[in-house]
Amino acid sequence: MKRGLVAVGAVAVLLLTGCTSTVTAETITVTPGASGTFSDGDTTVVVEPPASKAPAAPVEVTTAPPKQGKASDVLVGIQLTVASYGVEVMADQIESASNYACDQLAAGVPEEQIVALTGDIPEGANRDLVQLSRDSYCAIR
User: Fold this and answer.
1) Are 75 and 141 in contact, with CB atoms under 8 Å apart?
2) What's the mean pLDDT in 96-109?
3) Quick one: three-class SS letters along the chain?
4) What dihedral angle (degrees, nearest 10) is formed by the CA atoms of 84, 89, 94, 100?
5) What is the distance of C-alpha 128 from the center of its chain?
6) β partners of residue 37
7) Is it the case that residue 45 has pLDDT exceeding 60?
8) What is the reported pTM?
9) Tens digits of per-residue pLDDT, 54-99?
């Protein structure tokens, strides 16, 4: 019972002496675009200026197509495409046939008239070799 009286007494003393707790709201107004340190009461805010962007620069465009990879990687892709027709062609034969196709295309021979692979070869295999050579290999060989 003595404990209860002590607690009530302590609260009464605090209230009589004016000890209270209050929460105050502080508002800091910053003008748009301003930077610096702004304070109001116990609160301080630091506003950094926005990072400036570099001015736009012209972009140089070349007429040469960008290199799209190593020639050996492209030749492997051509070899795999020809192999999908059930034709086993060695890497050196693919390279020779692709170089021939590029030379013929550079000479102005129409694509459909170029026969880069001869023998027992399906028509689609030759056509794909010529097209892939034109699209991917000729510019980087």
Assistant:
1) no
2) 96
3) CHHHHHHHHHHHHHHHHCCCCCCCCCCCCCCCCCCEEEEECCEEEEECCCCCCCCCCCCCCCCCCCCCCCHHHHHHHHHHHHHCCCCCCCHHHHHHHHHHHHHHHHCCCCHHHCCCCCCCCCHHHHHHHHHHHHHHHCCCC
4) -110
5) 31
6) 46
7) yes
8) 0.52
9) 666 766 666 655 555 688 899 999 999 999 999 889 999 999 999 9
Q: Considering the chain, what is the average pLDDT of its residues? A: 79
Task: Give the residues across from 40 on adjacent strands.
Answer: 43
The distance in angstroms from the start CA to the end CA of the chain is 100
Residue linked to tokens 């736009």: 56
Q: Which of 88, 71, 68 is nearest to 80 (CA)?
A: 88
Q: The tokens of 83 are what?
A: 């192999």
Phi/psi for 93 (5° steps) reads -70, -40
Tokens standing for residue 137: 């290999």
